[in-house]
Amino acid sequence: MLLHGQPPPALRPGELRPAAPLLALLLLLPLQQAAAAAPAESGGFEVPGWRQDTQPPRSLLQQAARAALHFINFRAGSPSALRVLTAVQEGRASIRSKEGCRVDLVFTTERYNPEEGEGHLGKCSARVFFKNQKPRPAINVTCSRLIEKKKREQEDYLLYKQMKKLKNPLDVVSLPDSYGHIDPSLRPMWDLAFLGSSYVMWEKTTQFLYYYMIQLHSVKQWKINDDAIDFDYTVLLHEFSTQEIIPCRIHLVWYPGKRLKVKYHCQELQTPEEASGTEGSAVAPTELSNF
Ligand SMILES: *[C@@H]1O[C@H](CO)[C@@H](O)[C@H](O)[C@H]1NC(C)=O
User: Is 100 in the pocket of ligand 1 (CB under 6 A)?
Assistant: First the structure.
């Protein structure tokens, strides 16, 4: 039933896209914007007890960027604001053996569903703190905007209207289907599923484990409640280093412009002693002005 060796057509979150040479030019503008938006405090590095690593391994920076990206996607609470990672530009890490590892980094992102001719990069500055072996890194992040707020609201509303019109969504067996294809009419559903998964993936990420959504496995419920989309579904998450496939049941409620609510329960296949799995729930915070 699984799609190993059959990657979904969508870009995986946290995966790098090959950078086009032209992007170097486009970078100049967001660079300046982000410099202004970057957190002012950098004094954290002088705190005694932290060993500063000025040349942290690339894998650590990538991992911090992936975690921050899941967090950003969840926090935005909007299927048309979804981003993917383009490149990590710089980073520093401080390690305190008893506590964990703190990474400060700058990375670029672009839209998950770019429109024709769009090549805009959004720059993000983040501080990510991985507690030793523990999931759910603490994250502070500021990003330059990828699309105007108004345009995003319009796009969200458009997606919402398409979602409301979906015929028999409960018949959706899996996305992508066995040919690796996502029907365009189901794309908004995929995006919404992806949005909910971002929260789960952020909560499960550790310094060494990272996840991406490979399949919308089944739809248990799809209804409109007080105008909000009430969506209960199962996704398969793939953990990269262990190659584990983890089914997670996610229940979310979304209405454009309102807070996204997410609840989940993941089944841990490889650890029977934790048969109950992991679970959590959250409400995306109201929109932050810098986002
Ligand atoms: C994020 O910012 C808050 C408030 O400034 C601070 O308490 C928290 O420790 C920061 N978290 C990280 C990971 O830097």
Answer: no
